[in-house]
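Handout for the seminar on molecular recognition.
Each group receives one record of this type.
Step one: identify the two inputs.
Step two: read the structure output and locate the region that could contact pyridoxine-5'-phosphate.
Step three: write two sentences on what you found, then compare them with the reference statements printed after the record.
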Amino acid sequence: MTRLGVNIDHVATVRQARGVAYPDPIAAASMVELSGADGIVCHLREDRRHIQDRDLRILKEIVQTQLNLEMAATEEMVRIAIATKPDIVTLVPEKREELTTEGGLDVVKSFRSLNKAIQRLHKENIPVSLFVDPDRNQIKASEGVEAEAIEIHTGHYCEAKTSTQADDELKRIFDAIGEASQRNLRIAAGHGLNYVNVRRIAEIKEIEELNIGHSIIARAVLVGLDRAVREMIALIR
Ligand code: PXP
C-alpha cells in the first residue's frame, strides 16, 4: 500500500503571513497523524519563510510516525539535521527567489558535495533521500552517492497542459522508475500532486510513498470553511 507523507509547510505559511502563533503546524502534524497519514514532511528553508527552527524541534518531539526533513545540502542545514535527528532527510535544491522547489537536484554535477553531506548524515544514522527529476543519469548518480532513497519530482507531470504532455511526462517517470528499481534505492514521489492528478501516480506500484502538501492544505481550507464560519457566527450572535 502506498504510504502518504503530508507536508505541513503551508500551515506555517498562513501563520507567517500574520506573524501570530496560529495555525500551528505542530497541531496540524498531530491531526494529520490522527487521520492516518504515514509521515510528516517539512522543509526548513534558508529564508525561514514558513517552517521555523522551533517548529522542527517540536515536530521531532511529537511526531509519532516518520519525520521527513526536506532541506538544502548546506552547512547550516546539515548541522541542524544532525542536532535534530529526523527519521529521514530529503535533500532538495533551493533558490531564495523561487516560489517552491522548482526542479530536482543535479546529483551528477554536485556528486562530491552531496556525497560529503550524505556521509555526515549517515555518521549520525540519518538515512537520506534525494529529490531528483525522472532522469536515468540522476538516478544512477543517486545510488553512486550512497543515498538510500530517491523522491521523483512529479512537478512536470502535474504541470502538463495537455494529455499528450502528461503522457510524455508519465513515460519519463516510468523510465526513471525502471532504472531505480534495478538499484538499491527506495522510491518515493511528490510535488504538485493533487486530487485530480494523483491517481495515475498512485497506480505505480514501485512507488512506496507519496509526499503531498499544498493540495491537502488548500483543500483543508475549503472543506473546513463552512464550520469555521458557523463557529464565528455562533460566537458573535
Ligand atoms: N516533495 C518535495 C521534495 C518538496 O520539495 C515538496 C514541496 O515542499 C513536496 C514534496 C510537496 O509538494 P506539494 O506541496 O506541491 O504537494
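Reference statements: The chain has a mean pLDDT of 97. The CA atoms of residues 71 and 208 lie 21 Å apart.
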